[in-house]
Request: fold
Amino acid sequence: MDEFAADARPYPLPQHLLAEPVRDPDDGERIIAPDPRVVVLPDPAEVFVDDQPWLVRLLHPLVSVELTAFDPAWSGRVHLLSPVEPEEGLLGEDTSAHHDDFACENWISFHVENDGRYRFLGQRRFFEIEDMEASGEQEDPSALYETYAAADAEFTGTKARWERLGALVWGDAQDPTRQRESWGTDIALVDEIGGEPGYGNWHEFPPPKAFALDSSDPAAPVLRLADGRPFTYIGGTAGYPWRNQGADQILLFFEPETRTAALTFDWS
Reply:
């Protein structure tokens, strides 16, 4: 199904999404219906660079957002991703040996190529399954592989439901390709576009060294590059019901001069 359904309401692409006087500028906009500013369940081939094919199994692309929706001078798309890991705890919690300036506990970042695809800036072994396979040190890898298999099955079911219904709905426990009965169809594709990221436990985890987080105003934390250039908060969405497991909120930031995208996760 075409993500941009014929009956989707048209939107202009203002320089700032939240210029409407009826909306508090600190609040983002909730997107439920198909919208020309977003692409739902984008093809991974259009999300990740060709020479990092291993990203496809690690990160599920949920929604792509057009950067021109924030500034007409910007180009390409940025992507809200749901990591398959962790089984428990935080992303990267068990791979501290492979943290660096661009990826650390609860944070990952990417360069947005000119074609809008992501290039991961961290180390491949930041992800537990990649570290496990490279080192061969885990005695029983079955639990981690089972986590990945279950997540892939759930995500495949989400794609099937979207193609059939054109809506994001909860999947049936026995058959994830079918809608869970009586669970509704008004689930947001994006919980918020724009606005402020707001308070959450995500900013209790320091970002990688290439970035700095100013939490002096806990209601409106500001992510910056280490040299002071600020990121724009693109928006956020929950990791579920895209899959049964996922962060309570996936937050996406973008810095236009370096074309850096940063993702972090709230587990409130």
In short: Residues 142-165 form the longest helix (24 residues).
